Amino acid sequence: MSKGLAKRIVPCLDVKDGQTVKGTNFVNLRQAGDPVELGKAYSEQGADELVFLDITASFEGRKTFTEMVTRVAREINIPFTVGGGINELADVERLLYAGADKVSVNSAAIRRPELINEIANRFGSQVCVCAIDARLDADGWHCYVKGGRERVELGLFDWAREAEQRGAGEILFTSMDHDGVKTGYANEALARLADELSIPIIASGGAGAKEHFRDAFLLGKADAALAASVFHFGEIPIPELKQYLHQEGINVRL
Question: 14 catalytic, yes or no?
């Protein structure tokens, strides 16, 4: 991928029982509205892509979520990624068939890394986003599963490299320490990922000000920056954010 491509702004919607919710450090959920309406508003404001995460991926939740994906595909004309509870190719097939452009796999890929190969081989690398939740522990950056509740013995950088080798088209890296705290992205770790990998890196966790997006692109060398609450609660309007980034010399689609 050439680094000259426009940087992407990606609102993320966590969906629970058909509603958008937002928490801090993965807990304390508050409601933020109908995901399809929100997604449509973001698309009209100039978002480049959207991510919808099914955070109650139980059977009942899944049915509701798939119906929502169908509605999103009907109403929204920018690419969107869906994730949450994707464990096998049948899940991927169902969501792509409902209209999603890409799927994001996280815990399931750590449990069974071949899942990445299977998705890439069947649908192409561009469909497979490998999401990684990691935290900087005393002994370095480590991956976590189960919504950040359980540490695994995988280092962030080793796992990201393996995911790329297996065919992932993008890495969506969430720094759990930064998530929802609004003090900026984990730029050092982002920059290292960008240097070590050749696929796009999406920054997630920490957006609280327009400068944080700028830093994720300039210092963190990210290809895309994802955020939730600053968009959901109207703190940073997307057109204003893009104007600001453009003035800072960052290539964005206006």
Answer: yes
pLDDT digits (tens, 9 = 90+) for 149-191: 899 999 999 999 999 999 999 999 999 987 777 899 999 999 9
Cβ burial of 202 (10 Å; 0-12, 13-18, 19+) is buried
pLDDT in tens, 90-102: 999 999 999 999 9
d(CA 206, CA 226): 9
Beta-carbon contacts of 220 under 8 Å, excluding residues fewer than 6 positions away, are 185, 186, 187, 188, 190, 191, 194, 201, 203
Catalytic one of 133, 179, 215, 223: 133
Question: How far is C-alpha 30 from the chain's CA centre?
Answer: 19
Question: Which residues, other chains included, contact 243 with Cβ-Cβ below 8 Å and sequence gap of 6+?
Answer: 254
Q: From the candidates 14, 48, 179, 223, which is the catalytic residue?
A: 14
pTM listed for this prediction: 0.92
**Tokens (6 digits) for 169:** 């088209």
Quick one: average pLDDT of 130-141?
96
Q: Is 17 a catalytic residue?
A: no
Q: Which residues contact 112 (CB under 8 A, 6 or more apart)?
A: none
The Cα 161–Cα 249 span in angstroms is 30
Residue 26: band (very low, low, confident or very high) from pLDDT cuts 50, 70, 90: very low
